[in-house]
Specification:
single chain, 130 residues, mainly beta, five-stranded antiparallel beta sheet, 1 helix
Length: 130
């Protein structure tokens, strides 16, 4: 049986929306058909710019640290050992306003019909870094 094991070191960081986002298990890396899983590391002062998903809900689990998350403009804190479901179509933005790094595991599903349809950005994006 050929089942992929993917390390964070196996995939490059995507910094387009902010932070260090790594998609570990996806159609490309592991042959996933129902969604994808990844990690997010946010240093103090970093944000993931606001966006929404027209096809997918997003599961966020904070492993360590804490962030302020905006959900359709409503702010709330998400701390270590807490999880949150972002429903389809809800705008969301994460900001690390603390003094230490925050580390998350996330999962999205179902998949959009094509990867470029998976995110709708509502804040200006930056060029990829790193």
């Amino acid at each position: 049986m050929d089942i992929a094991t993917i390390s964070m070191d196996d995939v490059p960081a995507n910094r387009k929306r902010g932070g260090d986002i790594r998609t570990l298990l996806s159609p490309t890396t592991a042959g996933a058909t129902s969604g994808f899983l990844g990690t997010l590391t946010l240093a103090p002062g970093e944000v993931v710019r606001e966006h929404w998903h027209p096809y997918s809900e997003e599961f966020l689990f904070c492993v360590s640290g804490a962030v302020t998350i905006g959900l359709d403009g409503e702010r709330r804190r998400l701390a270590a050992r807490q999880g949150l479901l972002v429903p389809v179509g809800v705008r969301h933005r994460l900001a690390n306003e603390g003094t230490g790094p925050a580390f998350f595991v996330f999962q999205l599903g179902p998949l959009a019909p094509r990867p470029e349809l998976g995110h709708v950005d509502t804040e200006p994006l930056t060029e990829a870094v790193g």
